[in-house]
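note to self — DONT lose this again. spent like an hour looking for the file last time. sequence + predicted structure for the chain T wanted, 70 res
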Amino acid sequence: MQKKKIGIIREAKFPPDARVPLTPAQIKYLKEKYTHAEIVVQPGKGRSFPDYEFHDHGITMQENLHDCDI
């Protein structure tokens, strides 16, 4: 099975919203369960979870998401 790369964009809504589609713990779980999927997160301010929490869960932070499949 070909590996797919999923990118989570930063929140860019104005006025800003503090939501995320997946929590750091959820992403960690998905990465462990679905090893054929790679999930990266675009750094951003104003999320419910700061960037360091994603990093602390072993999630790659990536500014440019152009190489993501989804």
